[in-house]
Write a structure and sequence with these properties.
The structure is a homodimer.
Chain A: E1 5-7, H1 9-22, H2 30-44, E2 47-50, E3 60-68, H3 70-73, H4 80-94, E4 100-103, H5 113-120, E5 125-126, E6 128-129, H6 142-145, E7 153-156, E8 162-166, H7 170-183, E9 187-191, E10 195-196, H8 197-203, E11 205-206, H9 208-224, H10 229-237, E12 240-255, E13 258-267, E14 275-281, E15 283-289, E16 292-296, E17 300-305, E18 311-312, E19 322-328, H11 337-343
Parallel strand pairs in A: 2-5, 3-4
Antiparallel strand pairs in A: 1-2, 3-9, 3-10, 6-11, 7-8, 7-9, 12-13, 12-19, 13-14, 14-15, 15-16, 17-18, 17-19
Chain lengths: 363, 363
């Protein structure tokens, strides 16, 4: 059990960087979430980050997040207020005080959005999340594997509309919330998956916000000391550098609210004469090297600028960028038959089985 | 003020026929609604139809209806139970007993669906509706003209999913409910526009369920006595026969949940050598005769089988059918600038102004 720590605006800089790394190419731009969270912290004070084990078994815990396609989000700055409104509406609906906020998705923008609610509503934030990375659909959380219903869920937009969903399955929650989000202009703010402390202790991917902070902090230090940022990140994640090359071609399209596509790379230096391909649906899901599938979802694939270590999203891939690809094993919670049914390659429509990336640990 | 009357399964036969006539080509198949309502009445007893003036000013009144494209509805028989669930969920949300059920749309399937709730929940049903006909969108009700919010609204599907909407405008309610309905498979059951008795007295198009019953009853009698069914219907509606001809060509497509299209006719007998065209979006909205717009929404256009007087929907238009077209003036509530902004030709994308069909009254 770790000691509680207070998160202020400075720590959020690191967490946002770490969130972009765990975003595995998607998850939305953490920069926007960071600005929202920093503003909330300046206004309401720092956020207490707690270990999931410090929750009472009957505590009420609620994840919050933003839903939508990153390509849309960058054009439409969300207001943090609506996330707080969603949280408070769900609290009113449940008829009791929510004891702690939870992060649904530690990768991308949602690594930082929960800090908005934690600060504004003065609740502790659990150090952990429901993915250990980023994923594009609402039911793709370890909470689903532990039988937690996504509903009752409150969904708000930036115009003042709100929706309460009560569904027969988390897949239906995704379908109905996705349709509403598209209609609302491409992004919406959610409070969902209400659960008790006992369930949270089983279902949460632990320590992922602390991991984000360490990733961001080490990256910052490596730059300051002229070290090798990519190597530092690989060390923390227990990841391998699986490619080093330049972006040659990117094909992307927005389908049903998702940014889908393929990126091709040509190798440089030690990887000259090798080819590399990524397939993404918001997040990088499959990595091929020289035509062979090398890394498959749920294992993590992340792209970093070869020099600075800055994480690069699928959105921002441009011809000629020189990048290094890292890969590491996902949380063991996903590497189960039930987990793979929810987020394995076949769920995303790829005709291949999961190939566990080398034995390794990922917090 | 009229006397209350009890509606049983036999009266529903007439109301469903009248509902199809006021359906102006759309509104969904009243046959399905009739079956649902008759089953509910057999199980729970007849429904008391009351005059809106018998409501106390602070009574709570709630319209219920089915939402969706008629072409989808005929393939997927809705369960009346979900309408009762939507009603009871809204009642629980409002925190007080609903005193009376209201009909949102007297044309089409929703002329009969409110009887399901009135019977099952043992509440009186107000004789009247929010359209005096059928229209394709949720905000197209006289309630909107009187400042009533469509939300809080409960929307249920036949699978067990439910949604509560709380929106900034009735147009937003339509957008979000439409997206949900499409995702739910094409139809959904709603309870919405909660209002007090004082508002209902101002906003309701009065007596339209009684009108439906008279239309169905007179049609039945005309057939039994070998009279002229079309003339009888025209008499009750104070309508003109504006065309008599055969269907020559129908073009239809389902767009965003609506059945849109155009039907062309060639005249017979007194209308030989004349042409007739209808444009519809679920309902018949514009009638052209010999290339000139003759009747425009909100005035009513309805098609009847030339011999039997059976109303014919846009869905069931087939090459060669011999039909008569009737037209009559809409309720005066719609013939205002605010009304025309909501349901005039330009709202539906037609580049023409409303042309009031000859002075006349429609109950």
């Amino acid at each position: 059990m770790t000691t509680d720590r207070m998160i202020g605006t400075a720590e959020l800089e690191d967490i946002a960087i770490g969130g972009a790394i765990l975003g595995t190419g998607g998850g939305g731009d953490p920069y926007i979430g960071k600005l929202m969270a920093q503003q909330a912290i300046r206004q309401h004070g720092p956020v207490r980050l707690i270990d999931v084990d410090s929750l009472g078994n009957d505590a009420l815990v609620v994840p919050v997040c933003m839903m939508g396609a990153p390509t849309v989000m960058t054009e439409k700055l969300p207001q943090g207020d609506e996330l707080v409104i969603a949280f408070r509406k769900l609290e009113a609906l449940l008829g009791r005080r929510i004891d702690a906020v939870l992060c649904g998705e530690a990768g991308g923008i949602n690594s930082t959005t929960p800090f908005v609610v934690a600060a504004a509503a003065d609740r502790p934030l659990v150090d952990g999340d429901g993915m250990g990375r980023a994923y594009p659909e609402l039911q793709m959380v370890t909470f689903t594997l532990h039988g937690v219903s996504a509903t009752p869920m409150v969904l708000c937009d930036d115009k003042g509309n709100s929706i309460v969903l009560d569904t027969i399955s988390n897949a239906w929650t995704e379908r109905l919330a996705r349709a509403a989000t598209v209609e609302m202009g491409g992004s919406a703010l959610l409070a969902f998956y209400p659960m008790d402390g006992a369930t949270a202790k089983r279902a949460v991917v632990r320590g992922t916000l602390g991991l984000c902070a360490r990733l961001g902090s080490r990256l910052r230090q490596a730059r300051a000391t002229h070290g090798d940022p990519v190597a530092e990140i690989a060390d923390i994640l227990d990841a391998d550098v699986i490619f080093h090359g330049r972006v040659r071609d990117v094909e992307r399209r927005t389908v049903g609210g998702f940014a889908r596509g393929t990126a091709d790379f040509e190798g440089v230096e030690e990887w000259a004469d090798h080819r590399f391909r990524l397939q993404f649906q918001n997040e990088f899901l499959i990595a091929y090297r020289d035509g062979e599938p090398l890394v498959t979802t749920p294992d993590l694939i992340t792209l970093l600028d070869a020099e600075s270590g800055t994480p690069v999203t699928a959105d921002s891939l441009r011809y000629g960028l020189r990048l290094k690809a890292l890969a590491c094993a996902s949380t063991p919670l996903w590497r189960t038959p039930a987990g793979l049914e929810l987020i394995g390659p076949r769920y995303f429509g790829y005709d291949l089985d999961y190939r566990p990336f080398r034995a390794g640990s990922q917090p």
